[in-house]
Design goal:
Distance between the termini of chain B: 33 Å
Helix content of chain B: under 10%
Largest sheet of chain B: 7 strands, mixed
Largest sheet of chain A: 6 strands, mixed
Structural class of chain B: mainly beta
Shape of chain B: globular
Order of helices and strands of chain A: EEEEEEEEEE
Oligomer: heterodimer
Largest interface: A-B, 26 and 30 residues
Number of helices of chain A: 0
Number of strands of chain B: 11
Strand content of chain A: over 45%
Number of helices of chain B: 0
Structural class of chain A: mainly beta
Radius of gyration of chain B: 13 Å
Shape of chain A: globular
Amino acid sequence: AQSVAQPEDQVNVAEGNPLTVKCTYSVSGNPYLFWYVQYPNRGLQFLLKYITGDNLVKGSYGFEAEFNKSQTSFHLKKPSALVSDSALYFCAEVTTDSWGKLQFGAGTQVVVTP
Amino acid sequence: DAGITQSPRHKVTETGTPVTLRCHQTENHRYMYWYRQDPGHGLRLIHYSYGVKDTDKGEVSDGYSVSRSKTEDFLLTLESATSSQTSVYFCATLRDRGNSNQPQHFGDGTRLSIL
């Protein structure tokens, strides 16, 4: 069965330090991968995606993600975290049955302290 | 975003009562999805629709039914609510499955508490 793993329930980082949120996926072949962010009492907002091509993907709000096929990973990164980056982050992959369905990781709470 | 409105935004009800949640979209997207969000589980797919009157089950469909009589509306019904269905429910849309490399658009959710 497909699965997306986010091994950390919470990541704590000081403002200005680099931020990494980990994700591993399970789809073989060429996966479609997404990162979303959720602020309190809001829906999910799209950050970035990997479809094909360059393994380093740049997205919104200064975030980027690195696709690594050999490690089946798609880690989210930001060089210098802001307090406003504190939120819940979800990694997701498109299922292989072509109905556009998403399989989500459990989510990682990011806490950025001043 | 795709102009997605979920209603109600909050609801408290009692075990055994029927509950219907509504998702309304204004972008004419063909695909619509209902997810539930629970701590430690991320979002899990309940049901999805690939057109008017065309729906199918997702990962956690037991106890839920859906209907889609118009492109813009996707209803989720709990026929007899149970406490295990206390959750936050999200609706999402996608223009077409040929666009599955595009992000789904999400509503702001409905927080449902079943006592």
